[in-house]
Amino acid sequence: MSLKQNDSELHSLILQERKRQADVLELIASENYVSDEVLEALGSVLTNKYAEGYPHKRYYAGNEIVDQIEDLAIARTKAAFHLPDDWHVNVQPYSGSPMNLEVYAALLSPGDTVMAMNLDHGGHLTHGSPVNFSGKQYKFVHYGVSPKSHKLDYEEIAKMADKVRPKLILSGFTAYPREIDFKRFKEIAQDVNAVSMADISHIGGLVAAGVHASPIPFFDVVTTTTHKTLRGPRGGLIMCKEKHAVAIDKAVFPGMQGGPHENAIASMAVAMKEVNTAAFRKYAEQVVKNSKALAKSLMDFGFKLVSGGSDNHMLIMDLTNKNIGGKQAQDLLDSAGIVTNRSMIPFDTRKPWDPSGIRIGTPAVTSRGMKEKDMSKIASWITAVITEPLVAPKVKDEIKKFTKNFPAPGL
Ligand code: DSN
């Protein structure tokens, strides 16, 4: 009995996707390759089990094994993030969007004022975009980056907080290439008596590995997805000070979710064990080194980058001096086996469907073992394709050969 024999149509599609992932340069900043072990737990019989509730307090029978698995995921998360004893972890959020909405539901009332990063400057849909539930339910006031440096201007954020007196201040981004000063954010929140929340979904792996500043232990709540730099299954984690634990747990279940996906939670436990190793810390260091090297090479080739560089795992190319839009650049690069996603740049004059930027990240190529010298090669391919689109098929061929030297985990 196997998928290959019984559902060859789907089996073939999975094989095609596996080959695509193997043959390309995966540069989407939020993607990664998980290990065989993470995949094995995700595809296990744990998907069969309903476990509404929390470990040792479930609404269904037969959870004696699943309880141990969820306990293990919690304990390993605490270890991976070096959480103090008075911190609590909820490993049940299905993914990033429910995770953030659950925190709001726990700590806010509809109509409350929240401060968060503007989507166009690098925030996330769940950080109060008017088209998202968060923006409809709460009164979000958005801060952005400085028009000059394209970096966060903490003085401006402090002034805004003083004026709008938010109930919660959120720091966290999907397209911001610089290190975040969490201590400064905490001071700003404290000065106006606001709850401090960090969404570290993008930088979770860097924070756990100690290569990016951490909001723990001084923030109130920290959320992260588990499938980006943390290199785990798709899922979400909420870490919070014990005083918020009851409200957060209630908001997750029964507030917003039903039965937790115990296969994903087991897979998360595997990933957290991997994160808490010297090998992972080396990986996270290399992710940042690669991002800095790629940023430098692209700038040497004449590309403008938002904020002029990168401190973390990503960079944003500003194509306004290149006579090409983000959508066309994304499609062209994709046709050459270079997978990225288009992105707004701060103060963009173009629309989100076809903005002025391209977001690039190094977590996935670093998982394949690529180093700084490989980043200059990648920069030269990106340059070639954007300046001379006709070379795309040739570059695709070269990349296919090149990636064979770097087997991806889990493929
Ligand atoms: N869609 C994710 C990203 O690519 O950053 C965030 O949810």
TrEMBL record:
BP terms from Gene Ontology: glycine biosynthetic process from serine; methylation; tetrahydrofolate interconversion
GO CC terms of this entry: cytosol
PROSITE patterns hit by this protein: SHMT
Enzyme Commission identifier(s): 2.1.2.1
Main location class: cytoplasm
Functional pathway: One-carbon metabolism; tetrahydrofolate interconversion; Amino-acid biosynthesis; glycine biosynthesis; glycine from L-serine: step 1/1
Signal peptide: none
Residue numbers marked as site, Plays an important role in substrate specificity: 227
Catalysed reaction equations from the record: (6R)-5,10-methylene-5,6,7,8-tetrahydrofolate + glycine + H2O = (6S)-5,6,7,8-tetrahydrofolate + L-serine
EC top class named in words: transferase
Gene Ontology molecular function, alphabetical: glycine hydroxymethyltransferase activity; methyltransferase activity; pyridoxal phosphate binding
Cofactor or coenzyme needed: pyridoxal 5'-phosphate
Keywords from the UniProt entry: Amino-acid biosynthesis, Cytoplasm, Methyltransferase, One-carbon metabolism, Pyridoxal phosphate, Transferase
Serine hydroxymethyltransferase-like domain: residues covered: 3-382
Superkingdom classification of source: Bacteria
InterPro entries documented for this protein: PyrdxlP-dep_Trfase, PyrdxlP-dep_Trfase_major, PyrdxlP-dep_Trfase_small, Ser_HO-MeTrfase, Ser_HO-MeTrfase-like, Ser_HO-MeTrfase_PLP_BS, SHMT-like_dom
Family annotation (Pfam families): SHMT
UniProt keyword Methyltransferase present: yes
Modified residues (N6-(pyridoxal phosphate)lysine): 228
Subcellular location: Cytoplasm
Record-listed (6S)-5,6,7,8-tetrahydrofolate binding positions: 119, 123-125
Similarity field: Belongs to the SHMT family.
Described function: Catalyzes the reversible interconversion of serine and glycine with tetrahydrofolate (THF) serving as the one-carbon carrier. This reaction serves as the major source of one-carbon groups required for the biosynthesis of purines, thymidylate, methionine, and other important biomolecules. Also exhibits THF-independent aldolase activity toward beta-hydroxyamino acids, producing glycine and aldehydes, via a retro-aldol mechanism.
The protein's assembly and partners: Homodimer.
Full protein name: Serine hydroxymethyltransferase
Gene for this chain: glyA
